[in-house]
Design a protein that fits this description.
heterodimer; A: D-Maltodextrin-Binding Protein, domain 2; D-Maltodextrin-Binding Protein, domain 2; 2 domains; 6-stranded mixed sheet; 4-stranded mixed sheet; about 45% helix; about 15% strand; B: mainly alpha; MetI-like fold; two-stranded antiparallel ribbon; 13 helices; about 75% helix; Sugar ABC transporter substrate-binding protein (chain A)
Chain lengths: ~400, ~325
């Protein structure tokens, strides 16, 4: 009874707001940068010109509110047709039966567009639940001018990295290492160190590996840098944007980052002299990577039309424009073979790290696990707890979730 | 509904006895029928979501709001077993009390000054009320950048004035960040509270003060024994309304720290948001919503009671 009322209210709302006509394809897009919206607007214009009768409705929402938007849309019974999501969330969507398997739509020719290995994160129980849309392996970017001033050498090992961070911090108003301690991806920022120390996010048996000696030592080395004044003071007030802003302002010598920072630097700080280098090595040459997925919803109202949008979007012309403007790594063969990715030294440095990249594990409740990890790290950075105490407890809390 | 019916008739009725009784019943039922459509609509818009919320709280719920199975008080037990809930609850009490009292203590003198006649009073009133017109989220975003440790305007200003000699990271540690958030919440609550108090002050007739002055009440005495008692109903309403607004105020804390670092600035409403939309624990989240609703309902009833008492006097 309740449901019936609820659905009639929702129907009435949908009719009033006029968003749900048949033939509309609703596509939720979280922007990567200020380039995202103009790019998708161009796609919309071109797509509608090429496909009269199909209306592409773009809905932009920030990465931070993406899950909230999709949850409310799905709970209200009106999911969008398409959405870009972090691949790490795909498991939850697939497990709840919200994601539409795409195997039926895939043709051999279309499959051949992609770099094969990127499919594997989207394969769940043998079905393709999404298409790779964006990939980024992370690397270190250094401000070469600051290194010269401080008389330091860009590091290749973790110990050199710690030394260089301390040395650069001696320059007035300058800090060696920009450490992100707030907001999304505080966990990722720590995983660079964790992986370099030879640690893992999950053990073989799927339980948390945050209480391993490597993981504790990695967190300890970040804390050491904070205590030595080799990072910006109180990293826990620096989100991603604030940390990268310090780098663009020339106030920090090194940051770990995704390739997306490169176009931002070129645009906002064109005079900054920088170099892209691998993450410094403690015991293992490694980095952390993220992929994003384009998914279709099982409750989508216009699946065939939505598939037309997908095919349109994966034309080389659009893929190349998107990857280059956003500074992402290619997921399609043609773009990977293009001059830009073969010759541009910055992009080559990032692409070179793909073979050693560890991608976010595909497990349910990843967001909650990330939250537990971040809370533990923040306690360490603030000096409220030792890395041993904080990470041991985090591992215990995560294991409870993993056993569910 | 019962309050609407037990309300005294709007106009005094002439005559005595039976005729009056029938007439009165007719009037009452007419009033009832007139407000009925409004009541039904309100019940639908406000009541239905609350019913669904209660229903949800007793079910196991999927990440996307599908009710799976009835699970009794399991969601409640989950919430009560979560240490983060108690921390957020305690912080919510501190937050509400500090912001409401702080706002009142600052708004009262401001309202008293703005009630005096002086050149440029209109402009001063405008200045005080202006922040009201800016969206709370935008205010919070501006503060977030202004409070940035390395490049924020606020530190820059303090450094220039020589008040501090090294930049302060305002949002980096939870206790300091929470104090800053309380201060900002007080600042943004002042315009509304001042307006309310100004209304109260202007309702106090001048001759009361003249009479007081004849009896020797001036300055503090006049404030203590005339202004404050007569302003009391307005102060009460300001407290109750501010409690309602502040208790579940989301943007300042969310924009500035997202409840961090290390969940050290989480209040119930940010904790609730994380439960529902970051962790997908909608069952647990509806329990917390219900509890918040119960608290706010109490304050709303208090507000309604205060309002009615004011209308009667």
């Amino acid at each position: 009874m309740l449901r019936k009322y609820l659905s009639s209210i929702l129907l009435a709302t949908a009719l009033c707001t006029g968003t749900a006509y048949a033939g509309d394809v609703r596509f939720v897009v979280p922007p990567y940068s200020s380039e995202t919206e103009p790019f998708f607007k161009e796609v919309e214009r071109d797509f509608e010109a090429a496909n009269p009768g199909i209306n592409l409705v773009l809905e932009f929402t920030s990465w931070e509110t993406l899950n909230q938007k999709l949850t409310t849309d799905i709970a209200a019974g009106s999911p969008p047709d398409l959405a870009l999501i972090g691949t790490r969330s795909l498991t939850d969507y697939a497990a709840q039966g919200v994601a539409e398997p795409l195997d039926a739509h895939m043709t051999p020719a279309f499959k051949d567009v992609f770099i094969e290995s990127f499919f594997s994160p989207s394969m769940i129980d043998g079905k393709l639940m999404g298409l790779p849309f964006a990939a980024s392996a992370r690397a270190m970017i250094v401000n070469t001018e600051l290194f010269e001033k401080a008389g330091a050498k860009p590091p290749t090992t973790w110990d050199e990295f710690m030394g260089a961070a301390r040395q650069i911090s001696k320059l007035p108003g300058t800090y060696g290492f920009g450490l992100q301690g707030q907001g999304v991806e505080v966990d990722a920022y720590y995983f660079y160190a964790l992986l370099s120390f030879g640690g893992r996010i999950l053990k073989e048996d799927g339980m948390s590996a945050l209480n391993s000696p490597e993981a504790i030592a990695a967190a300890q080395s970040y804390k050491q840098l904070i205590d030595d004044g080799a990072t910006q003071p109180t990293p826990t007030s620096y989100g991603e944007a604030e940390t990268f802003a310090l780098f663009k302002q020339g106030k920090v010598g090194m940051v770990f980052t995704f390739p997306m920072l490169i176009p931002q630097i070129k645009k906002e700080a064109p005079n900054l002299k920088y170099e892209v280098l691998p993450i410094p090595v403690k015991t293992t040459s490694a980095t952390y990577g993220i992929t994003d997925t384009l998914m279709m919803f099982s409750g989508a109202k216009s699946k065939d039309e939505a598939w037309k949008v997908i095919e349109f979007l994966y034309q080389d012309k659009y893929r190349a424009a998107f990857d280059e403007r956003e500074g992402l790594l290619p997921v399609t063969k043609a773009v990977a073979a293009s001059d830009y990715y073969q010759k541009d030294p910055d992009m080559r440095a990032f692409t070179a790290l793909l073979p050693v990249a560890h991608f976010a594990p595909l497990i349910p409740n990843f967001d909650q696990i990330a939250d537990i990890t971040v809370r533990a790290l923040q306690r360490v950075y603030l000096g409220e707890e030792t890395s041993e105490v904080a990470l041991n407890r985090a591992a215990t809390e995560i294991d409870v979730l993993r056993k569910k | 509904m019962s309050t609407a019916l037990s309300h005294p008739p709007l106009l005094p009725l002439a005559g005595e006895g039976k005729v009056r009784g029938i007439f009165r019943m007719f009037r009452m039922s007419r009033a009832f029928w007139l407000i009925l459509p409004g009541l039904l609509l309100t019940a639908l818009v406000i009541g239905l979501p609350i019913l669904i919320l209660i229903w949800t709280a007793f079910h196991e719920v999927s990440r996307f709001g599908v009710l799976l199975s009835f699970n009794g008080f399991a969601n409640f037990a989950d919430v009560f077993a979560d240490p983060l809930f108690y921390a957020a609850l305690l912080r919510t009490i501190v937050w509400t009390a500090a912001v409401v009292l702080g706002t009142l203590l600052l708004s009262l003198p401001v309202a008293l000054i703005l009630n005096e006649d002086f050149a440029g009073r209109g402009f001063a009133r405008l200045l005080i009320l202006l922040p009201w017109s800016v969206s709370l989220t935008m205010t919070a975003v501006v503060w977030r950048w202004a409070l940035n440790g390395q490049s924020g305007l606020f530190n820059h200003l303090l450094l220039q004035l020589g008040i501090i000699d090294t930049p302060i990271e305002w949002l980096g540690t939870a206790p300091l960040a929470f104090m800053v958030q309380i201060a900002i919440a007080i600042l943004v609550s002042i315009p509304f509270t001042v307006t309310l108090l100004l209304g109260g002050l202007s309702s106090i007739a001048g001759d009361v003060y003249e009479a007081g002055a004849v009896d020797g009440a001036t300055g503090w005495k006049s404030f203590r024994h005339i202004t404050l008692p007569l302003l009391k109903p307005f102060v009460n309403i300001a407290i109750v309304l501010n409690v309602i607004y502040i208790f579940n105020s989301f943007p300042i804390i969310w924009v500035l720290t997202q409840g961090g670092p290390a969940d050290g600035t989480d209040i119930l409403v940010t904790y609730l948001y994380k439960l529902a939309f970051k962790f997908g624990q909608l069952g647990k989240a509806s329990v917390v919503s219900l509890m918040m609703f119960a608290v706010l309902l109490v304050f709303t009833v208090v507000y309604a009671a205060l309002q009615m008492r004011r209308e009667e006097t």
